[in-house]
Specification:
Length: about 425
C-alpha cells in the first residue's frame, strides 16, 4: 500500500550501497519523492519505487536515517561489513546504486552485476579501463543496465552549453578551464576514513572531464597533471590537497583543444558557497563563461552565514523549498538524474512484453551520457591522472600519458625515459 492508500502491483525495488554524504544529498530525496508520488511514465504507467535494502560499513547512518525517515520511505533492511553487499544482493532488488568511496566502486558494481541487477554507479565510475571492460562484459552477459551518475550533465546551464554546441551556434572549442573547490571539511572530516592516498582530481575533476568529453566529443590525446600536498597529509605522501589536470583533445578536422581542470578540497570552511565552480570555454566564434555559484542569489543571515547557511547557494542541484501550493519539496538536477536512471530501468522491466525485453535493453543502452561504454575517455583520463600522481609520489613529477599512442592505449612517459610504461594496451 502506498502513502495514498492505493495498492499498485508495478514496483521497482532498489538497493543502496553507501549511506554517506551523496546518499543524503540526492538518493534520499529521490527515494522519498518516489515513495510519496510513485513514478509515472507513459511507457509503463505508475510504478512504486522502494528503497528495499542498504549496505554500509557500520550501519550507523542507516539506523539514524531509519529513525528520521519514518513515514517518508518504507521499511528497509540494513546490512553492514563484512560482506554487506553480498547480504544486500540476497534481498530481492531490481537495481543497485553504488555510492561508496571511488576506489570501492568496482568490487560493489561487479558483485551487483554478477547477481543480475541493474546498476547505477556514482562518479567516477571506476579507476581503470581494465575494470570498465570487465563491468561492461558482465552487464552484457547478464542483460542488465550499467550506468553512471554525472549530474552536471543535467545542470540547466551545462545543458544550454551543449545545446549551443550541438546546434552549431558555438563552433569548435579551442581551449577552456574549469575549477571546482571543495571546503576543508570534506577532506578533513567527511572523507577522513578513506582519504589516504586519494586526490580531489579523481573525486571532482571527473565532473568536468565528463562535461568536456560529452559536450565537445573528440579524441583524448594527452593527459598531464600537477598537484600539491601538505595540508591533508604529509608533503611527500600520497594524499593530495589540490590538483591541476590538463587534457588535450583532437577533433575530426585535426585541430586540437586544451582544457585545464583545477580542483581542491582544502578551501576554507568559511567560504561563502558550498563549493566554488567556474568554467570558461573559448570557441572559434564565442566565449562561454559559467559560474555555478554566482547564479544570482546572495543572502546574509546573522549568526548563520557562511557556516550553517552559505551566502551563495545552488538552488538548482537539490534545493529544499516550500512550493507555492504549500508542500515541502526537494528537487533539482542531482535528483533528476537518478529519477532518469530509474525510468530507464522501469522501461526495460515494465515497458512491454518479455519478447521485446532485449530491444528495450538495447534502446536504453544507446544513451552515451550515462552508459559505461560512453565513459571510456573519462576513465582513461582518470587512470592517467592517478598514474601520473603516483609517479610524482615516487619521485617522478611531470609525467605525460599519451592516448592511443603507438605503444598502446594509455602510455605513460617519464621525463628522460624514452620507453613508456603501458597502462592499458587495447585502444581506448
Ligand atoms: N555526484 C556528486 O556530486 C557526488 C558528490 C559526493 C560524492 N559523490 C560520490 O559518491 C561516492 C560516495 O561519496 P560520499 O560523499 O557519499 O562518501 P562518504 O564517505 O560520505 O560515504 C561513503 C559510504 O560508503 C560506505 N562504505 C564504505 N566502504 C564500504 C564497503 N566496503 N561496503 C559498503 N559500504 C561501504 C560508508 O559506510 C559510507 O556510508 C563517491 O564515489 C563520490 O565520488 C558524488
Amino acid at each position: 500500500m502506498n502513502p495514498a492508500g492505493r495498492s499498485n502491483n508495478q514496483r521497482l525495488r532498489g538497493g543502496m550501497v553507501g549511506m554517506g554524504m551523496i546518499f543524503d544529498e540526492t538518493y534520499r530525496p529521490f527515494f522519498e519523492n518516489a515513495f510519496r508520488d510513485g513514478l509515472y511514465d507513459r511507457r509503463f504507467g505508475v510504478c512504486e519505487v522502494e528503497l528495499a535494502a542498504v549496505a554500509s560499513r557500520t550501519g550507523s547512518r542507516a539506523e539514524a536515517y531509519r529513525e528520521s525517515s519514518l513515514g517518508k520511505v518504507g521499511d528497509f533492511q540494513s546490512f553492514v561489513e563484512p560482506n554487506s553487499i553480498g547480504q544486500l544482493l540476497d534481498v530481492d532488488v531490481d537495481f543497485v546504486c553504488i555510492a561508496t568511496p571511488d576506489d570501492r566502486h568496482f568490487a560493489a558494481a561487479k558483485a551487483a552485476l554478477e547477481a543480475g541487477k541493474h546498476v547505477l554507479i556514482e562518479k567516477p565510475s571506476v579507476l581503470s579501463l581494465a575494470e570498465l571492460d570487465e563491468l561492461e562484459r558482465i552487464a552484457r552477459d547478464k542483460n542488465v543496465l550499467a550506468k553512471i551518475v554525472y549530474h552536471k550533465l543535467f545542470d540547466p546551464d551545462h545543458k544550454k552549453l551543449r545545446t549551443l554546441v550541438h546546434d552549431g551556434v558555438l563552433n569548435h572549442v579551442n581551449s577552456g578551464y574549469c575549477t571546482l573547490l571543495e571546503p576543508k571539511l570534506i577532506s578533513g572530516s567527511q572523507f577522513s576514513e578513506w582519504i589516504t592516498g586519494r586526490n580531489p582530481g579523481t573525486y571532482v575533476a571527473v565532473h568536468y572531464i565528463k562535461l568536456i568529453d560529452f559536450t565537445f566529443g573528440g579524441r583524448l590525446k594527452r593527459v598531464t597533471c600537477s598537484g600539491q600536498r601538505g595540508i591533508v597529509g604529509p608533503s611527500d605522501g600520497p594524499t593530495w590537497d589540490s590538483t591541476q589536470l590538463r587534457m588535450v583533445y583532437e577533433y575530426d578536422d585535426g585541430r586540437e583543444a586544451a582544457f585545464d581542470i583545477h580542483t581542491s578540497w582544502v578551501t576554507p570552511d568559511n567560504f561563502p558557497g558550498y563549493v566554488e565552480q567556474e568554467v570558461q570555454f573559448r570557441f572559434d566564434n564565442g566565449v562561454w563563461n559559467g559560474h555555478s555559484r554566482k547564479r544570482g542569489v546572495e543572502c546574509t543571515v546573522e549568526g548563520k552565514t557562511p557556516f550553517e547557511l552559505k551566502n551563495s547557494m545552488n538552488n538548482h542541484y537539490n534545493g529544499t523549498f516550500v512550493e507555492p501550493y504549500g508542500e515541502r519539496t526537494q528537487r533539482g538536477y542531482g535528483i533528476e538524474v537518478l529519477e532518469r536512471f530509474v525510468r530507464e530501468v522501469g522501461f526495460v522491466q515494465l515497458g512491454g512484453s518479455e519478447a521485446t525485453h532485449a530491444d528495450r535493453l538495447a534502446q536504453m543502452r544507446t544513451y552515451h551520457y550515462n552508459e559505461l561504454s560512453g565513459d571510456r575517455q573519462v576513465v582513461a583520463a582518470v587512470e592517467a591522472m592517478e598514474a601520473i600522481l603516483a609517479e610524482h609520489v615516487a619521485g617522478n613529477p611531470e609525467c605525460i600519458v599519451k592516448v592511443n599512442d603507438e605503444a598502446g592505449g594509455l602510455a605513460l612517459y617519464k621525463p628522460g625515459v624514452s620507453e613508456p610504461e603501458v597502462l592499458y594496451s587495447p585502444e581506448v
